[in-house]
Amino acid sequence: MIAAVYGALTLVTVQFLGFLAWGPIQLRVSEALTVVALFTPAAIPGLTIGSIVANLYTFVTTGNPLALLDVVFGSLGTLLGAIWMWRFRGRKTLALLGPIIFNAVIVPAYLPLLVKGFGLYQIPFTNIDLEGAWIPMYLFGVVAIGVGEAIVVYGLGLPLSVALARMGLAQRAGARNEP
């Protein structure tokens, strides 16, 4: 269920936000669902599979083999972020950093190759051309993806976690509640 919701929400986000959901600046609303890992370790494979399915969408729709980088490494970021979240579930503020840190460090490492594969060389909303400039593109990606991830995880995920806790999900999943 978690995989299906994550995957579907990512696809909806891609349809409405376009390159803001998969390019150098990412606002994937589905990343708010990573907070489910605060309540149950079963969310870890669900989020990972959902990420794989969502990232496969880019590969299938574009046919670009470089999109497989996102399937493997983008999904790895989701997996590690969810594991971190479960591990630090008793300290919510620290736990929410997991998806932000892992996605901000991993995704920009391959994103210049992916973006180049799609013929995009400029930082969005600027005239800065990054063709062949991996280090500036990586550093831009760390900041841009980190900020986008933080907006989604803290702006949408944190309130979602509060709502789920109030609904009693934490007790049913056997997780600890944070005051």
Proportion in helices: 55-70%
Label the structural class: mainly alpha
Count of separate DSSP helical elements: 7
**Share of residues in strands:** under 5%
Total E-strand runs: 0
Shape: globular
Rg for CA atoms: 16 Å
Please report the distance between the alpha carbons of the first and last residues: 28 Å
- Low-confidence sequence ranges: 175-179
The biggest sheet, with number of strands, parallel, antiparallel or mixed sense and barrel status, is: none
Q: Topology, pairings included?
A:
Layout: H1 2-17, H2 43-62, H3 68-87, H4 92-95, H5 97-117, H6 134-166, H7 169-173
How does this structure look, described?
The protein has 179 residues and is mainly α. 66% of the residues lie in helices and 0% in strands. It is built from seven helices and no strands. α3 packs antiparallel against α5 and α5 packs across α6. It is globular, with a radius of gyration of 16 Å. The two termini are 28 Å apart. The C terminus is likely disordered.
Primary descriptors:
mainly alpha; single chain
In short:
Helix content is about 65%, strand content about 0%. The protein is built from 7 helices and no strands.
